[in-house]
Amino acid sequence: MDVKIAEQSVHSSATARALPPRERILIAARELFARHGVHGVGVEAVAEAAGTNKMTLYRHFESKDLLVAEYLRGLAAEGSAIWCEIENEHPGQPLAQIDAWLMRITNHVEHGNESGCALATAAIQLTDPAHPGRKVIEANTRQHRDNLIRLCRASGLSEPELLADQLFLLIEGSRVAWQNVGDERPGANLATLAAGIIASHRK
User: Fold this and answer.
1) How far apart are CA 190 and CA 105, in angstroms?
2) Burial code of 89-111, b = ≥16 C-beta within 10 A, e = fewer?
3) How far apart are CA 55 and CA 46, in angstroms?
4) Is the pTM value of this prediction over 0.70?
5) Segment 120-131, tens digit of pLDDT
6) What CATH number matches the domain at 72-199, 1.10.357, 1.10.1740, 1.10.10, 3.40.50?
7) From CA 164, how far away is CA 144, in angstroms rounded?
8) Which superfamily does 2-60 belong to?
9) How far apart are CA 59 and CA 142, in angstroms?
10) How far out from the chain centre does Cα 29 lie?
11) Please, are residues 32 and 42 in contact by the beta-carbon 8 Å criterion?
12) Where are the domains of the chain?
């Protein structure tokens, strides 16, 4: 399987080849893990796609599990950056920030290119609670929930913790449904469903 995956991987450009080995490994891992899943790719395929070898890979990442965790950490960081961007776009407007976040999630999920989808996929695949990647996923989940609770509370909406959980579950359900059934998923009208939930919490 590794040979087949390596053959399918996109050859790195001259610019990518000039990057340090660690960066090339992470770029290759991201592409291959996203395409084939974290369990469907071996370290040999990642090393070959990165233009290096297993020895170099293990010098930067002591195990595949740690490489997977770093891959997930990069995805989580992208999700965290979105909150900062939204806050800068809508300073002092917590409800507008919630709406903007939901809109971004809707647009990205519909095109299948949102980092949260990759995190959700990895969460399904990584069933071992001791896997270092699970800790990254769990910390990312807590951060998003905490951000939602903070914004719901600042918006003056009733039962902010409950509302945050409802929105979070709606989003996660939409991601999983998209992966399973595509555009006909139950969460296709994510923004409309979220608006109805938010309206039910107005005082």
Assistant:
1) 9
2) ebeebbbebbbbbbeebbebbbe
3) 12
4) yes
5) 888 889 999 999
6) 1.10.357
7) 9
8) Homeodomain-like (1.10.10.60)
9) 31
10) 14
11) no
12) 2-60, 72-199
Residue in the block written with tokens 């929105």: 167
> Helix (H, G, I), strand (E, B), or coil: what is residue 127?
coil
What is the distance between the alpha carbons of residues 172 and 124, in angstroms, rounded to a whole number? Answer: 12
Q: Tell me the pLDDT tens digit for each residue of 26-50.
A: 999 999 998 899 999 999 999 999 9
CA-based nearest residue to 65, from 22, 31, 33? 33
Q: Is the pLDDT of residue 63 over 60?
A: yes
Unique residue bearing structure tokens 């107005």: 202
> Which one-letter DSSP state was computed for residue 17?
H
Q: For residue 17, which amino acid is it?
A: R
Alpha carbon 22 to its chain centroid, in Å, reads 21
Q: In the structure encoding, which two tokens stand for residue 113, read together?
A: 């290119």
Whether 116 contacts 77, CB under 8 Å: no
